[in-house]
Amino acid sequence: MLNYFFDRLSLKQLEKTCYLVIKLDSNTNKF
Predict the structure, then answer these.
(1) Cα–Cα dist 29/13, whole Å
(2) Which domain holds residue 3?
């Protein structure tokens, strides 16, 4: 159960990181 929780946590973290990278990427593409 705890393992599952950490899995979900890292997944969320990964999602956030990917989202930020994509956001940054699109921002730099605008310029």
Answers:
(1) 24
(2) 1-30
Tokens of 4: 């599952």
DSSP annotation string for 1-31: -HHHHHHHHHHHHHHHHHHHHHHHHHHHHH-
pTM of the model: 0.54
| Cα 11 to Cα 19: distance, rounded to the nearest angstrom | 12
* pLDDT confidence of residue 28: 75
What would the pLDDT profile of 9-23 be if each residue is shown by its tens digit?
A: 899 999 999 899 888
Our count of domains for the chain comes to: 1
